[in-house]
Amino acid sequence: MAKTEQRNGLGVRDGTDKLTDNGKGSESDPEVNGSAVTAENQVDKYGFTGGAQQTSGAGAEEVPIDVLRQREAKWLEMLNHWDKWMAKKHKKVKDRCQKGIPPSLRGRAWLYLTGGKVKREQNQGKFQELDEQPGDPKWVDIIERDLHRQFPFHEMFAARGGHGQQDLFRVLKAYTLHRPEEGYCQAQAPVAAVLLMHMPAEDAFWALVQICEKYLPGYYSTGLEAIQLDGQILHALLRRVSLPAYRHLNKHKLDPIMYMTEWFMCAFSRSLPWASVLRIWDMFLCEGVKIIFRVGLVLLKCMLGSQEKLKACQGTYETMERLRAIPPQYVQEAFLVREVIELPVNEKEIEKEHYAQLRRWKETHGDLQCKSPPRMHGAKAIIAADPPRRQDLRQKPTIIVASPLARDGVNGREGEGGGGGGRAGVPAPADPDGSADGTALLRHIAESEESLSNGEEDTYL
Fold first, then answer.
1. Which residues make Cβ contacts (< 8 Å) with residue 410, sequence separation at least 6?
2. Rab-GAP TBC domain spans which residues (predicted)?
3. CATH number at residue 296
4. Which of 180, 254, 279, 321 has the maximal Cβ count within 10 Å?
């Protein structure tokens, strides 16, 4: 097995890249030194002005605007009755995550999928309390040195000391105070940064907590035992998915931790085009870590899955270089998502292999030093393990706009109070179970005989 530093950072290993150097990046690399982004640079639709993540347009799917609006309406309906959808129509939620969450609702959907919304409501004031504390100087120093490395070509993080870097510092520092025994790991920074691109700092903090504790438990702990175990699981699953790739990696004694550490610990946020990152995260936060395993298996199969492809990989170095430079056609959004969905690897197979690898680990290394909580396989498992109260799921918009669809009822309800919060002209919620908590547009969708949640109309949407 490749040597990894037994410390709380992404392990330093042979052939490592920028993420693994524990605070000492190459000054010549603009992605490390945080060089300023000039005003002339064009900003893509995701906020990138350059770098590997910038989208040229060729690799991203364009959803027709009318389809996007209908998807938004469906997601608003689901979010307004989240507990019911997760209990009775989870497959529909999964299908819609696979099709891609509308950009305008992605942050809110991620917060609900991870259980971060419930966690926030159950711990009101906790983030503010952590935010006001100074933090452990050891972790504060490392976090500050890492801030400028996180997506420096994204407009949110381009400026040193800008609001994006400030919020990233707040979230990461708060986590070290929330889990002082775990502290900070460098791979948490890009994960937190992705969350901050879609939600406020407090929401990003609770989503990060859920990812670290429920989706990827033990990944960021000292010793990196959990990621090493998952590397062995990935290798074992590869035998069934692509025997040529499995034999090739065995032949050259390539330990999984040499090529999959950044993939898994950063949830592919540093390894794929941005359109693909978002689609993978939509599925990952819904279905759990099996999506991360599937992506890794698809990439290994695409790069090493035939004798023809292996001709260019005569040694360890060539193989590692091939896995670092994956051709665009294999990471393009439509291709990758389709391959991931179709790959037959499920939670039971991952758990079965987990116990097998755990037995082997104990035989060779003894008991695990880090006792992590059990892994939750996606949103359904999380909500089942800790059923939320309905008030914890209720949306609390800061801006309420009356819909034109509700003209008949707006004036008649002025001053009624209740869900309208006493605001004149805002319709009060009328749902008898108290769960309706949005605008009249959502009631119109829910009550319509031709509701957009009808499965017959949902073949493409």
1. 402, 425, 426, 427, 440
2. 100-288
3. 1.10.472.80
4. 279
Q: Supply the pLDDT for residue 206.
A: 97
In the structure, what pLDDT confidence band is assigned to residue 298 with cuts at 50, 70 and 90? Answer: very high
Check whether 56 has a pLDDT greater than 70. no
Compute the average pLDDT of residues 2-30: 37
User: Rounded to whole angstroms, how far apart are CA atoms 85 and 4?
Assistant: 43
Sign (positive or negative) of CA dihedral 77, 83, 84, 85: positive
Residue 354 counted as domain residue: yes
Going from the C-alpha of 104 to that of each of 75, 132, 290, 308, the distances in angstroms are: 10, 31, 26, 43
For residue 336, what are its two tokens? 């990758």
Is residue 27 within 8 Å of residue 243, measured between CB atoms?
no
Rounded to the nearest 10 degrees, the angle between the axes of helix 90-99 and helix 274-287 is: 170
**Residue 357, domain member (yes or no):** yes
Q: Give the pLDDT score at 403.
A: 54
The whole-number average pLDDT for the span 233-244 is 95
Banded model confidence at residue 446, pLDDT cuts 50, 70, 90: very low
Q: What is the pLDDT of residue 61?
A: 77
The answer on pLDDT for 49 being more than 90 is: no
Number of structural domains found in the chain: 1
Range of the domain at 243: 225-369
- The mean pLDDT value for 429-435 works out to 41
In a domain, 446, yes or no: no
